[in-house]
Amino acid sequence: MMNTGRIAERLHCPEPQPARRGTQQEIPSAVASADWLFLPAIADHLTPCDPLTEEAPPAPDWQPLQQALHDRITASAGADCAFTLLLPQAGTVDVTLAARQPTGWDIALRFPPQVWQQWQRRAGLCRQHLSQSLAAPVELKIEQGLA
């Protein structure tokens, strides 16, 4: 058994004090709500979730990108590949496809710096769309290319 008192003395640390629980009267009502502690601090960093529907594509270039990915995946028959797409609004996008074992795909998309952030914010939604349309797990990486 360890003697924690001696370690605390050598490190010049005070002995730990037992936790004290406050009563309901001691805790202000605003603090009693867990929402008060966490939500204001992160609210500025949250983006509203888009519903996963066909009417709400992740980005303007989503349809041509998704179609190109489907075409390459079916043509490659499970082999890894890399290619470059030219999308109307996003510009040049470098794509890397790698089959995962036992099923699924690792997909890396490298976007120009001008549009990278808008695609990065939608990465989760894009991954969900791809996973559903491919009927397989998808690991999606959105990367920033060079200017």
**DSSP strand content:** 15-25%
Indicate the overall shape: globular
The main sheet orders its strands as 1-2-3-4
Order of helices and strands: HHHHEEEHHE
Number of helices: 6
Brief description of this entry?
The chain is of the alpha+beta class and 147 residues long. It has helices at residues 4-10, 29-32, 34-43, 62-76, 113-121, 123-134; strands spanning 81-87, 91-99, 105-111, 138-144. The longest helix has 15 residues, at 62-76.
Structure, described:
- With 147 residues, this protein is α+β, with helices and mostly antiparallel strands.
- Helices cover 39% and strands 20% of the residues.
- The protein contains six helices and four strands; from the N terminus they run ααααβββααβ.
- The protein has helices at 4-10, 29-32, 34-43, 62-76, 113-121, 123-134, and strands at residues 81-87, 91-99, 105-111, 138-144.
- It has a four-stranded mixed beta sheet with strand order 1-2-3-4.
- A hairpin with a 5-residue loop joins strand 2 and strand 3 (105-111).
- The radius of gyration is 25 Å and the shape is globular.
